[in-house]
Fold:
Amino acid sequence: MGREYVYSIMLLNYIMSWKAKWIWIDREDPKNYYLYARKTFEASPKNIEKAEIKITADSKYVFFINGHFIGSGPIRGWPFEYYYDVYDVKPYLVEGRNVIAVIAQYYGISSFKYIKGRPGLLVQLEIKEKNGNVKIIGTDNDWKVIPSPSYRRNVPRFSCQQEWSEEYDARKELVGWTTQDYDDGDWQNAVVIGEVGIEPWKKLVERDIPLLMNVPVPPIKIVRVRSVKAPYIAWYIDLRNNLLPGKTDAHPKGFIGILTTVIESDREQVAKLKFVHPRWHCPQGLVKLNGKNVIPDNNVHILNLKKGRNLLLIDVTGRYHRWGTSLIIDTDGALRFSAPLGLKSPWATIGPFKERSDEGFVKAWHSRVENDLLKVREYIKPVSEVDYTTGDVFSLTVNQKDTGKEVRISNENALVSFSEDSMIIYPNGDDIELMLDFGKEVYGPISFEVDANEGVILDWNFFETLNEEHEPKYTFGLDNVMRYICREGFQRYRGIVSRGFRYATLTIRNLKKPLKIRKISCIFNTYPVLEKGSFECSDELLNQIWRMCSHTLKLSMLDTFVDCPTYEQTLWVGDARVEALVNYYAFGDTKLTRRCLLLIAKSLSRSPLVESQVPSGWQDILSTWSLLWVLTVDEYLSYVEDKDFLKEIYPYVAKMLSNLEKYITDKNLLSIKAWNMLDWAPMDTPNEGIVTHLNILAVEAFRRGAKLAEKLSDSENKERFLRNAERLKNAIISTLWDTERGGFIDSIHVDGKRSDVVSVAANALAITYDCVTPEQYNILKQKFLNWPQDWVKPGSPFGMFFVLEALEKLGYYDKILEEIRRNWSYMLYEGPRTCWEMFKETRSYCHGWSSGPLYFLSKIFLGFDVLEQNNEPIVIRPVITGLSKVKGEIPTVVGTVYIDWIKSEEDFKITVKVPFRKKIRIEIPLDTKKYKSVTIEKGECSYTMEDEWILECQGPIEVKAIFRKTASLV
Structure:
């Protein structure tokens, strides 16, 4: 038994502080390390009033009480303000002996959602007894720990944005280790690494959002079953430690070096080498075998192997954002791989070098036989065991071939029943592949139960959609895979990595006897939201697009807003602006937006402008995103009156705008050296010089900053921000307008050259944010009816969002509907029924930045701007052109607004329910010369009729009115 702290209730405030200590095992800074930790204790639930666990880990934890899965975390955060979670565990305690069991994973590298710290686990159980005593059981050197024997460390990274893929060997499982009766007597004691408050976790902060969902979603059908044969071998070799020693951040970086192995063959034979991922994600280059260049044919390198030892050299020189090489070598004969010169590894690197012309590189690259490398031995380093694998699951599964052999399956309906019944798969001597369809995009870890012979391998590959031939569109550039190796008999597994997908292939290898499998599910694991918003109209296509946008956004709400649930799972700051606005209409949540805005603000601790994605190991400024953050702050504070948040966030806004001011040139235009994109389109937005859309957004950012300053009576900053906005606006109008083309050019290059490019998106921003003269406005108003052919059109739904904002400002509502139908309709039928990252040709098929139509449909055609709910009167003004009926709900901080209208040849009917205790003004844009009478069926209203009908009342209220084409007033 370890130490227990017992205090009276009088000291409750004190004992709520941390008594636990940070622990780990006696290891240096490891890569992708899994630790099991246990602590047994006695409890009597009948005497317990409350039992809570506070827990966190660097980098990740999954924890159990008495064998029951409780939760995982922590949520992403900055190392200097690290998050912990709190769980009520009283329902899981039993009389007598209990156990806390934790899987703690340390990544050892930074990603786009995690900044490398140091390995550590912190757990504190606080039990308040009915007699007033409080017992605290915290991590210390009495906890038992052991390296996990089951989770493999030498696995590929998912991508440069994410961490490590998941491989679990149940043959090595410590069966029952999460239960209280397991004997951990041979485990070692934990090593205390410090008290709470040590670096890098200076401050611990309790989780500020709800726990994520845990809802099992089974597949709905088996798309196909086939026998397959995998390539001979699939290598993953992580080059970072060898060629970028000491680099653990997430910045893109290059190196100059060579990857080498000696392939030993018992006979002459032909093998095929193929690099699996695109170059940016997979170091690759020229290939030499025995001193001769191997010329690829469609990425296939033919290796003419001689009998004996063959020297393979690969020039991996280049700049990359993921430093692991994935390659397959396929042949019918046996091969053996070894690093040159007797080094104890199958692979080695040569380098790094400063230049390709370095003597060492030249000598190595011109080596014909192994002994030639003796001249450069000082540069050769073996690849360590933790940095390579021979069974790269992605490479195997995307390259396996159909053998045509029949596959026998029985009781396949059990796959979706979630009962105790099982689907049975019979061995046929080959690997067997099942393709499963989960019906729509899902996100979460995979879970299943299986009864199999020892050594059966379950290789999973998850992807979002199928191509036109109904073949998988695999996620090249992303190892969205998992491997599970079975022990003998019945077993269940719940994954520890959440991922986005609709489809999955399950490849079963080494099958010797019938395999039983059941309860396959994705544990849907997104942010919990109620679907408070709704929208239905006379066009069913628009209804489906609205629902598609809602589902897309839900999948892009994790512990922050993220760009997508599959490829990156990253809080991209610009994406979050669209996602927050859509969320207000779909779900009405405020906590996630608040959290994201503060996480973003904290990046100012190391950068002059808020960074592009946070909290991230890639310290990067995408200037457009920085400016959009200011708009998102203001919009959040328009949605909810949060004075405490305003006081907390405003100093960050003021700091960034003060820094932004330093980039204004003597020509009164913003010029910043940064990533200056707006959209994935061929716009001319150089990383230096004057960029038009940046200047326009800077105008609006300064205006919004002035608005926030006014709320806090900061008159000095208010006036300064407004002056900056005005001088930028004047310079934009006078400098960046192209009279001949009737629009704003994209940029002025650093050498003074004016851009030849005019883009729709940049000019849309000028319209929306009033950076135009009346004459320029009228010119653009005409051009936005039908964009000139030579103007660059939006390349993504994100870019189109800014265009739709401008069309709303111009009152072009029919064109808004036209653009939504044209650009989003095919997504309903050609993908996983979610919104794509790009138009037509895309990488991600579920991207939160593309959910904008929901915002425009609800805001415009229901007629309520949620960002004006703090105003008085509350204005309801539905647009009634282009549709014949609309109804829906809009969530607000005080309740739901319901609007329902129908327009016919004879009359116009409208119902409005509002929860506000304010004056309500309902504006009906009907021609009063045609609609001459109104009947108020419900609610006390006054009304006037001039050019249109206006109803006025006091909320909260429900109003029903009918406007008729008759002469008399009722």
Summary: The longest helix spans residues 715-735. Residues 231-396 form a domain with the Jelly Rolls fold (CATH 2.60.120.260). The first strand starts at residue 5 and ends at 7.
